[in-house]
Write a structure and sequence with these properties.
This protein is α+β, with helices and mostly antiparallel strands. The protein contains six helices and 28 strands. It has three domains: 89 residues, no CATH class; 159 residues, Jelly Rolls, CATH 2.60.120; 160 residues, Jelly Rolls. It has a 16-stranded mixed sheet that branches. Strands 17, 19, 20, 23, 26 and 28 form a six-stranded antiparallel sheet that branches.
Amino acid sequence: MNEDRSGELVQSYFLGSISDDEVAELDRRLKEDATVRALFAATARLETNLRDAASSVPTASEAPRQVARRPRRHLLIGLGAAAAITLSAILVSQFRPGSSPQPIARVAELSGTVTWIADGRQEDERLGDGAELTGGTLEVSSQDSWAEVVFRDGSIVWVSGPAVVTLSDGEAGKLIRVREGYLSLDVLPQPPDKPMRVTTPSAEAVVLGTQFNISANSSSTSLTVNEGQVRVTRLADGSVQEVGADQRVVAALEQESQFEARPRGEHVRIWKSELPRDARQGEWKPGDVGRAGALRAEAHLFRGDHGEQIDPILLHTAVLGPSVGAMSPVLLSEGARFRIHGRLDRSFRVNFGFGTHHARGGFSGKFATEREIEIDQNAEGLFEIEFSVDEFPRMRSRFPESAVGHELVWFWIQTPRKDVGLQVFGVELTSPEEPSKR
């Protein structure tokens, strides 16, 4: 091999088409060249994400047994080969051996615990506003953390936690791999032969220029288009939907689930959580005789804001939100009130907050407050508390002063530093314009 074929060898390895002689050649290059090792590490991380998604895809009745017998390196071919080839081609074009990683984007703003893991390096990097990013992975730890990233062409990606998102930009175009999280994207027109691709465990979106929101977890993806059009492929069976402005589609791994672009529907002004369907973060505890099920707060660490260095703060958080499958967005109206039902082991100061989108648009803001909750032990620690929407001040000056007129996306309840047994039975939004039917 006279020419440098390192990228081709790495691609062949992860596609399972590499020969024994080529394995030996790749092994030699990995030992001798740190750039090749960086390329291999970056490719391995994205290949792992795709394999995790593909291994969950339901296929014909005999397919699981066939996949189980294949060698590990051949797994991608059997489960979504076209997607695997596309991603591998993008990887090779973006990580050319011998070239220095170039910034592809910058951090416009962030809040909370946000970590960047750059391609080819395993260490975490502390981030601040204005930080330049090469290809790599953004990890947003909790619901009250977020980051706004701007690509070189001005396209904006807003990420809210908990989220794990891999970003790259190269000769084949921009690639955003969402393992989990909530994203709002404002994508400027892309070259027709180099669209932006957004992949999740259950879907792939091809974007030439639009504004849309996406919510993804390990088994389902909800995508709402506010401007333009997005082509969405369900990875479970390769079905395709063209999603236009003011439409929404849900792509789940279950092939029998509905996959159809539909109008978002008119706004509603009331909402009552249905658990566990509306749980976003936390541990669901089913009820037993005489006791309702509850969403138990989940522990995570806060390590500082805007690159500051602080000792980690332990937080316990439960998050609920309107179901990703709901076609009618929930609008916050004048005089609307939140009612929260829960339980604590003892009296404690609790944080409450919610995130919003513009009406039929992208991310608009986050709002939070706190309240001391006094627990009557005779009531077994149960509490019910109400807030008006205007009792939640904005978390940043760039956000609107009031959340009225914006869409509710999620609601969180949180105890800092101490585990006091926070459990949430439900959250309800009421409105004088549309009284709750209780």
